[in-house]
Amino acid sequence: MNATVHIIGAGLAGLSAALKLTARGHSVVVHEATAFAGGRCRSYHDAAVGLTIDNGNHLLLSGNHAALAYLRDIGAADRLVGPSHAEFPFVDLGSGERWTLRFNDGRLPWWIFDAKRRVPGTRVLDYLPLVRLLRAAPGQAVGEVITCDGVLYKRLVEPLLLAALNIDPPQGAARLASAVIRETLAAGGRACRPLIAREGLGSTLIEPALSHLQQRGAVLRLEHQLRALRFAAERVEALDFGGETIALAEDDAVVLAVPPYVAAPLVKDLTVPTEFRAIVNAHFRIAPPADMPQILGVLNGTVEWIFAFPGRVSVTISAGDRLIDGARDVLAKTIWSEVAAATGLPAELPPWQIVRERRATFAATPAQDAKRPGAATRWRNLALAGDWTDTGLPATIEGAIRSGNRAADVIAGPP
Ligand SMILES: Cc1cc2nc3c(=O)[nH]c(=O)nc-3n(C[C@H](O)[C@H](O)[C@H](O)COP(=O)(O)OP(=O)(O)OC[C@H]3O[C@@H](n4cnc5c(N)ncnc54)[C@H](O)[C@@H]3O)c2cc1C
Questions:
Q1: Mean pLDDT across the chain, nearest whole number?
Q2: Is it the case that residue 1 has pLDDT exceeding 80?
Q3: Per-residue pLDDT tens for 240-276?
Q4: How many C-alpha atoms does 186 have within 13 Å on its Cβ side?
Q5: Residue 304 Rama label (left phi>0; alpha psi -120 to 50; beta)
Q6: Is the distance from the beta carbon of residue 40 to the nearest atom of ligand 1 less than 6 Å?
Q7: Cα distance between residue 306 and residue 301, in whole Å
Q8: Given pLDDT bands bounded at 50, 70 and 90, which one contains residue 414?
Q9: Torsion angle of alpha carbons 5, 11, 13, 14, nearest 10°?
């Protein structure tokens, strides 16, 4: 049997590292500070709406290949649902216009040449500047590479990049925007199908992973918060959990898969992102209209995306820092009035819950992006994972899972 790997943090980064390492014969112990696995990607029962809800609506795209491989590994790929082609219905609350963006499946973007498929009010040439984003220099912000104005920006580029980077796009790192466009729009409609965990994040991404890990002999220790790492010259020699210290054998290793503000005080001289952006989600207990799409993009409102779930309608607002401190009931009413206008649901406010994640993601600016460390450290048995490590992607499920996979390779060597 191979050595034991201790994984600190049971978010998607920690769980993906655990899956890779157990698959390669390592014995794994996952230590999680809270009473549940999943981290920022979790489901829980909410008394206000009387339903199991997700901390936030999470959208995946069919081009998120590491996330889809993770789901296949845990036998849950069929729990993500979405349309068979890349379609994005939108409503503009300002003008009342509605349209559906329809990308064609292949790589050649002929949807741009079809006025019925492309963004209404745009011309073919409007799309050319997007190529500039693909070639952006390191350190540039999106606003330095393309003009953040005009119909195409407002109706496609802004909603896409705001959702993917969780930052007002002009401030966003062009390198990250470029990675998103390269792996989605530029890869063709087959990579852009929107996918959601219809039955919830927990039963799709987390619980099946925990069952698989258990079957492979891994141990999950909840409410087991790492307080300190003890370092020898070249390696971590012990893990300090407060009441308990675990000494590491010569070949044992550690994957630190905690948020950056937890990792920094644990590891000497570690540079990490220090600024964050919020995401606000609202959940309403009401059956969505039968003809409502699973995801509806909203322009010119507070609301950005409306999701239809069984018995529930939920809303996502990215870079929602401006909404963090306001009165919750006022926000719920504003959001619901927009949802009612967009979906035709009754104006009366249904039971609701608002979840405001203050530090949902690191702020995807060029300066913060430059602070992301790689997976390897100067200690031979310590690897870092997390959506904030230098994955080349914004803080997403795909990035978190790739970071876990990469940390596993650092510890175990390439597969
Ligand atoms: C509201 C919201 C909406 C989002 N929407 C999307 C989306 O639509 N699409 C998408 O791809 N991504 C989305 N994301 C981002 C996605 O959720 C994250 O990128 C991903 O979950 C991060 O996983 P992680 O493992 O890197 O970090 P985390 O999930 O933060 O996991 C870190 C874990 O470490 C634990 N921990 C902390 N300190 C200690 C300690 N000392 N000892 C032991 N354990 C510790 C924490 O409790 C946590 O469980 C969203 C995030 C939020 C918050």
A1: 96
A2: no
A3: 999 999 999 999 999 999 999 999 999 999 999 999 9
A4: 14
A5: alpha
A6: yes
A7: 12
A8: confident
A9: 0
Atom 3 in ligand 1: residue holding the nearest Cα = 56
What's the gap in Å between 352 CA and the centre of ligand 1?
Answer: 24
- Nearest-5° angle of CA 91, CA 92, CA 94? 150
H-helix segments, 251-396: 260-266, 328-343, 366-369
Which residue minimizes the CA distance to atom 10 of ligand 1? 396
**Tokens for 207?**
């619980």
Q: Which of 396, 398, 405 has the most ligand 1 atoms within 8 A of CB, as the residue to mutate? A: 396
Nearest atom of ligand 1 to the alpha carbon of 9: 34
Residues 182/134, Cβ–Cβ less than 8 Å: yes
Q: Which residue, judged by its Cα, is nearest atom 33 of ligand 1?
A: 9
pLDDT of residue 2: 62
Q: Taking Cα atoms as reference points, which of 408, 362, 369, 361 lies closest to residue 390?
A: 369
Give pLDDT tens digits for 200-246.
999 999 999 999 999 999 999 999 999 999 999 999 999 999 999 99
Sheet holding 295-299, edge to edge: 98-102, 87-92, 295-299, 305-309, 312-317, 276-284, 352-362
pLDDT tens digits for range 271-290: 999 999 999 999 999 999 99
pLDDT tens-digit profile of 347-364?
Answer: 999 999 999 999 999 999
Cβ-proximal residues to 383 (8 Å cutoff; 6+ apart), any chain: 17, 253, 254, 255, 256, 375, 376, 377, 407, 408, 410, 411
Centroid of ligand 1 to alpha carbon of 105 (angstroms): 31
Note the pTM of the prediction, 2 decimals.
Answer: 0.97
Question: If you take atom 6 of ligand 1, which residue's CA is the nearest one?
Answer: 58
- Give the number of residues written for the chain: 415
